[in-house]
């Protein structure tokens, strides 16, 4: 007779789900195409960790788009855009590091607003 350890089986299943959620979260930070791929990958699974990071990544993309619009304004817009790009890069690196380390911390500065704005996703 074969014996199975249900606790170990449940642990392995949860580890696999966690690894998949982590993989989806990391993919979401790799360009807009990665965000779309992560959204599609998580569409039927609805993993909370992945959803959290997809929201954060979407917020970073929207912020980058907004900075691009501001950058169209001569001189003052260019200065704001240049400074904003560096801040956005810092936010992106910190959010990606949170996903790599398995944490659900918001991105610096606007991350808590991203949670609030995109809670319907």
In short:
It is built from five helices and no strands. It is an all-alpha fold and 121 residues long.
How does this model look, in words?
This protein is mostly helical and 121 residues long. The protein contains 5 helices and no strands. α2 (31-43) runs antiparallel to α3. The longest helix has 25 residues, at 76-100. The chain is elongated, with a radius of gyration of 18 Å. Mean pLDDT is 87; it is low at 1-7.
List the helices and strands and how they pair.
Blueprint: H1 6-28, H2 31-43, H3 48-70, H4 76-100, H5 111-117
Helix pairs in contact: 1-2, 1-3, 2-3, 3-4, 3-5
Characteristics:
mainly alpha; elongated; disordered N terminus; 121 residues
Oligomer: single chain
Low-confidence stretches: 1-7
Structural class: mainly alpha
- Count of discrete alpha- or pi-helical segments spanning 4 or more residues: 5
C-alpha end-to-end distance: 47 Å
Q: Which shape, going by the Cα principal axes?
A: elongated
| SSE topology string | HHHHH
Task: Tell me roughly what share of residues is in helical segments.
Answer: over 70%
> Average pLDDT across residues?
87
Q: How much beta, percentage-wise?
A: under 5%
Largest sheet: none
Number of strands: 0
- Computed over alpha carbons, the radius of gyration is 18 Å
